[in-house]
From TrEMBL:
Species the sequence originates in: Candidatus Nitrohelix vancouverensis
GO MF annotations, alphabetized: zinc ion binding
Keywords: Metal-binding, Zinc
The organism's place on the tree of life at top rank: Bacteria
GO biological process: regulation of DNA-templated transcription
Protein name according to UniProt: DNA gyrase inhibitor YacG
PANTHER family associated with the record: DNA GYRASE INHIBITOR YACG
Lineage: Bacteria, Pseudomonadati, Nitrospinota/Tectimicrobiota group, Nitrospinota, Nitrospinia
Length: 66
């Protein structure tokens, strides 16, 4: 079992260990990994479970008012 330095963290994209405390892109190790993650959200690779907003509005009896 290896011991990780106190301020070291694995990048969630590339899994590389990096100095989290010194990273301008935390929780990512680089701008590249940050942009890859953003692309995954935009492409729909990541999703938050639940119904659509329309379903929630109808169930609650709410209407959009401008």
């Amino acid at each position: 079992m290896s011991v990780r330095p106190e301020n070291s963290a694995p990048c969630p994209i590339c899994k590389k260990e990096y100095a989290a405390k010194d990273s301008a892109f935390f929780p990512f190790c680089s701008e590249r990994c940050k942009l890859i993650d953003l692309g995954k959200w935009i492409d729909g690779d990541y999703r938050i479970a639940g119904g659509t907003a329309t379903d929630w509005d109808v169930e609650a009896g709410e209407k959009d008012e401008l």
